[in-house]
Amino acid sequence: MICFILFQLFPNMGSRFPSHQLSNGLYVSGRPEQPKEKTPVICSTAMPYTGGDIKKSGELGKMFDIHRKSGPLGNQPSRNTSFGGAGSNSGPVSNAVGRSNYSGSISSGVPGTGGSSRTKSNSGPLNKHGEPTKRSSGPQSGGVTPMARQNSGPLPPVLPTTGLITSGPITSGPMNSSGAARKVSGPLDSSVSMKMRATSFAHNQAVSNLNGEDGYSIKGSIPNAIWWLVSLLFVVGFVAGIFILAAIHNPVLLIVVVVIFAFVAALVTWNICWGTKGVIGFVSRYPDADLRTAKDGEYVKVTGVVTCGNVPLETSFQRVQRCVYTSTCLYEYRGWDSKAANPQHRRFTWGLRSMERHAVDFYISDFQSGLRALVKTGFGARVTPYVDESVVIDINPDNKDMSPEFLRWLRGRNLSSDDRIMRLKEGYIKEGSTVSVMGVVQKNDNVLMIVPPAEPISTGCQWAKCILPTSLDGLVLRCDTSDIDVIPV
């Protein structure tokens, strides 16, 4: 009993373990517990302007694993870490805070109150009724004094897009949750989109812009020297025939010259009208080669199914996607007093006013061997296309307002839509179509390619059809679009 009384009077006597007295008067061993500091509550305010630079934007920079140097940023207002009066410490919040769920800086306290109050923040998201949502800040360490819990206030009605980091979900700003630019809803002017798409095709190095009007030309079939020689012979024959007729009244020479001239004129007219079909017949009759036995550098014809490469095309008017070749041509009919579509446009004929033809590299699966070859029609390669085009729309002064899509297509290319008779034709080679390709086989590191030949290939004379020889320059593409069956790939 005496020992118990002595222990109550002198608790630390004869003991090396510390003890302390509870609120009810009892003494217990051990040191007293230290009072825990309450977790401070930090409001969210807008960070200073960073110009949209991620490296200067603090927490957002950490999200993208971009480390910046410690210390205050250049041209940045100071952040107060105390709640006292006029004396404040500038600089960013200590890195010991870690990945906290707050943004912005701590507001300075109102002077004269001992640091217990602070200014009210106006940043924070709004709910669907326009009222400020209740949002608490995360914990923070580093010697900051406790403070009262506050809610963020309403945002200003209109905020310019300046790159400031503000509170609220990422999807509410100009970027989505993945960090990419957020798409703006609403329709886009189709004429602007058409013009942008045509410009992108024209300036893409992987796309070949084909400017030839037709694959066949009578001027290209016959050299200019022969044209001048034949013309000179006819002039001399006509002069001699007329002189003999006037001198001795013998019309035989003049009749012979007229007959020969009529035959040559008929032959030229026939080739102008049927020359393209003659070339297509030549391509169709050319035998298909087997890529397994084809030699390197051999000129072959391959027929198979088309597969798109890295850059697929899209037609400009009908918006047909996944194409390897596209052609959109606008023709105009010129009457007696109509405007000419081009400087070579003659009266009472159809003239080409606008043309968009593009081709890209693609793959072809050979029907003979089953091998797959890369056809190099892109990157400015020489290509001679024989692809059938279909009439999409006919426009005259009476029905020009019936097609708003056509009018937008004209505006996208800065073409007038006045009183003209116009016809739009479009042709394309879509993925899965059957195509015949004529070119040179090239094998390089087990990669099978078909490339343009170094010199043009002559078709020769087709005597049975009275077709003059013509030259096929570059790769020859032949596709019959009348067969609408497309093999899915």
TrEMBL record:
Keywords: Membrane, Transmembrane, Transmembrane helix
Transmembrane segments annotated in the record for this chain: 225-245, 252-272
Positions with biased composition (Polar residues): 73-125, 135-152
Source domain of life: Eukaryota
Region called Disordered, residue ranges: 65-156
Name of this chain's protein: Ubiquitin-specific protease family C19-related protein
PANTHER family: OSJNBA0035M09.9 PROTEIN, UBIQUITIN-SPECIFIC PROTEASE FAMILY C19-RELATED PROTEIN
